[in-house]
Amino acid sequence: MKRILQLTFFILLASLSIGAIALDRTQVVDDPNHVSPLLIGQNAPEMTLFSSDGTPFSLRQKLAQKPTILLFYRGGWCPFCNAQLSQIQEIEEDIVAMDYQLLAISPDTPSALQKTSKDRKLGYELVSDYQLKATRQFGLAFHISDEYNQKVKSIGGKTARLAGDDKSTLPVPAVFILDTDGVVQFQYVNPNYKVRIKPELLLTAAKLALEDKEVEGK
């Protein structure tokens, strides 16, 4: 069943581009195809993140409350991300009915999250990773070129930088499903930011993840 859940383009890309290259998961790479995300069966790291009102919280403590669907997106300035956020909003009731909590993480500041939530009429929680802790610890961080950063700025976007780093960093868009122990049950990571997981596939993966846990508990 775990193999069924491992529906991710990253697996295909990894066999072609990463293969024999052992990457430090927290390393910020220069090519989104070379990220090394958390895999199924691995544990989410502990870190402090921020809610949209600026309140800090422990990620592991948050994950312990309920099974969690964790969505990483690039920022409220990204039209592909906004389209995905709206698609997820359409299936939020189904996600909640399965007793999941839904968290959407980006490098945006808390104030930027509030604007995105209001503009997109979102009912689920947006989380600020402006320090890029989650982006790095989940193995999704990559540098963008100065040219691309200028394009982001030209549409009103703002990217984040690590302390002492002269390049801006973005997360590869991703979805993780985690149990209350913080163990990854499913992941979808695609370096092509224009391609996102279909809502119906996410719902199927979420359902199968719960069924897997039920079987393991018997």
From TrEMBL:
GO cellular component term of the entry, any: cytoplasm
E.C. number: 1.11.1.24
One BP annotation, GO: cellular response to oxidative stress
Alphabetized InterPro entries for the sequence: AhpC/TSA (IPR000866), Peroxiredoxin_BCP/PrxQ (IPR050924), Thioredoxin-like_sf (IPR036249), Thioredoxin_domain (IPR013766)
One Gene Ontology MF term: thioredoxin peroxidase activity
Domain of life per record: Bacteria
Domain Thioredoxin: 38-211
Transmembrane spans: none
Catalytic reaction list: a hydroperoxide + [thioredoxin]-dithiol = an alcohol + [thioredoxin]-disulfide + H2O
Database matches in Pfam families: AhpC-TSA
Segment forming the signal sequence: 1-22
Keywords tagged on the record: Antioxidant, Disulfide bond, Oxidoreductase, Peroxidase, Redox-active center, Signal
Gene3D superfamilies cross-referenced by the UniProt entry: Glutaredoxin
Enzyme class label: oxidoreductase
Protein function: Thiol-specific peroxidase that catalyzes the reduction of hydrogen peroxide and organic hydroperoxides to water and alcohols, respectively. Plays a role in cell protection against oxidative stress by detoxifying peroxides and as sensor of hydrogen peroxide-mediated signaling events.
Family: Belongs to the peroxiredoxin family. BCP/PrxQ subfamily.
Name of the protein described by the UniProt record: thioredoxin-dependent peroxiredoxin
Organism of origin: Kangiella spongicola
